[in-house]
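Q: Got a minute? One more chain.
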Amino acid sequence: MIERVLKGRVVTTSGVIEDGWVAITDGTILAVGTGGAPEAAEIQDFGSAWLLPGAVDGQTHAGSQIGFPGMAPTTKAAVIGGVTTIVDMPYDHPIPVTKASVLQEKIAAIGEHAVCDVALYGTIPTTPDLSDIRGLIDEGVCAFKISSFEAHPDRFPRIDNSATLVLLKALEGTGLPLGLHNEDQEIVAHATKALKEAGKTGAEYHSQSRPPVAELAATSTFLEVAASTEAHAHIVHISVPEGFEMARAYRERGVSATAEMCVHYLLFDADTDMPRLKGLLKVNPPIRPGQTDALWDVLEKGQCSFVSSDHSAWPLERKTSASIFDVAAGMPGLEAMVPAFFTAAAKRKDDVQAAMLTAEYLSDRPARFFGLSGKGRIAPGFDADIAVLSPEHFVYDATANPDGPGWSAYHGMTFSVRPSATFVRGRKVWDGVAVADAAGHGRYVPRRT
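A: Always. Here it is, folded:
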């Protein structure tokens, strides 16, 4: 007997199945069809709701503040938003994931705290150790990440070009991407110093303190270093279309070069939203003025790899200083990413096209990018990771999640779809009202080549 059948408008890679159904047993999708559904121990009919593959958020920061127990609130936020797998960054508190032993501790925390599935990045210190790099690869990290900008000397250091080259050479033949936080240290330091000396410390000056040239200079240097190797170079967030054009030009040269879009760059504009939201909207690289339409064009042309949230749930006191330079960078986005992206896409396309874009850029593409076998699609043999989106307008309330930080730049926005249920490997972990008591249901998902 089939354990469970879900009915609704099923979104697959080939199109939307109206009056569709998904049959599930042992956490796996057995069959997908339309019309008369097979018999099952449980049938749930979601009517006109969209059944999308659960989102794979390719950029989250679960452990940046409270360490590995951050897996609990982060994965709860994920399933509230229809995200069934997070790809977590390695810059955890108090130490980053530079060794297999640290990675194993983080994997153990997933087994204890996580509600959804988790894949993991690794990183390196300023002086990389080849045995540590190999140890992380052997333990199944899905990618590595470094930064050209120092946010913290130990936890989030700047990696120079010589160390970057060592890591790129070590990753040749593995298929693992090396992601870069792409900002030039000296340009940012100079611009920030000049603004501070002029007394220009309001939120409206954040973009000027980290100008596009800082982002593009770091991107071009990284890609040129990567061009001397056969490794995969990836930019984890680009805020201006010129960066995506740069990555495309390197691909035409034969370099394995990719770039990622964060959802906030597609929704917010510095001219209109920074004066309103101030430090709540501070991210690095910054939200830019007048770029949203151009970035949507980049996405629609297929020039970005996938879309992520860059979720970082700082406490409110870290986001409300008078000077923008004293505000922590990053914002929570897991709960809002899927409905926000769908809503914005539906304004440019119709609802069917918006559903297809959401499934492609938030599920299928990141799953394939990170080598997460069995994730990202509603198809036989894949994990039964399903997000149910009800076609109803709702106002997002960032205070509704008792385990969240109680704020969000998306707070008060009206979305055209609402995540009303989330299934992780066939288990309903979000019913539209509360997260199930499912700590430890989440699994570590290693990369599969």
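A: The chain has two domains: 2-51+381-430, 52-369.
Q: Perfect, thanks.
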